[in-house]
């Protein structure tokens, strides 16, 4: 009995790989286009949020979709967010106002700007906006603190181990 196994020619394999690559690239372009389109309606407030976030975090590759989600969540907790962002952006642009160029140190008369900067950093690094019962979790894995350890810890978190493991005394 002669059993033959079907063989895939090299040409067929390369065609399949090419199709898969093309589909992947097209999908990424579609996602990028949708993300950009989602950012457009938010206007200048979102642009200020991204500029301030880039300055505070020191990261130029912030996720625009996450930025939009954080911005919208912050709009719910802070009524005059756009005006406050403009003031914070101006304060950050003036290094002389800040203590020694530290982007998180503000003068005593800039308490509102300091509070907003801390809220923005909390959103990016912890993934939550607001405090207490009004806190909103916007992201977990994509939070900057978890991205920093994602190559080492699974799941990416500073609370490594099973749920509740931190409660047990060593």
TrEMBL record:
Classification via InterPro entries: FAD-SLDH_ssu (IPR024651), TAT_signal (IPR006311)
Pfam families: FAD-SLDH
Entry keyword Signal: yes
Stretch forming the signal peptide: 1-37
Keyword annotations from UniProtKB, A to Z: Signal
The protein, known as: Twin-arginine translocation signal domain-containing protein
Organism per entry: Duganella guangzhouensis
């Amino acid at each position: 009995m002669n059993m033959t196994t079907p063989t895939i020619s090299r040409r067929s394999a390369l065609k399949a790989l090419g199709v898969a690559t093309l589909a992947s690239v097209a999908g990424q372009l579609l996602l990028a286009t949708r993300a950009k389109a989602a950012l457009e309606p938010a206007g200048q407030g979102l642009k200020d949020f991204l500029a301030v976030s880039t300055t505070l975090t020191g990261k130029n590759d912030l996720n625009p979709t996450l930025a939009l989600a954080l911005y919208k969540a912050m709009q719910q907790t802070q009524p005059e967010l756009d005006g406050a962002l403009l003031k914070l952006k101006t304060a950050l642009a003036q290094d002389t106002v800040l203590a020694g160029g530290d982007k998180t140190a503000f003068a005593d008369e800039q308490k509102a700007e300091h509070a907003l900067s801390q809220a923005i950093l909390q959103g990016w690094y912890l993934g939550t906006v607001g405090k207490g019962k009004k806190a909103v979790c916007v992201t977990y894995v994509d939070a900057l603190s978890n991205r920093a350890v994602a190559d080492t810890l699974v799941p990416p978190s500073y609370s490594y181990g099973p749920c509740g493991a931190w409660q047990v005394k060593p």
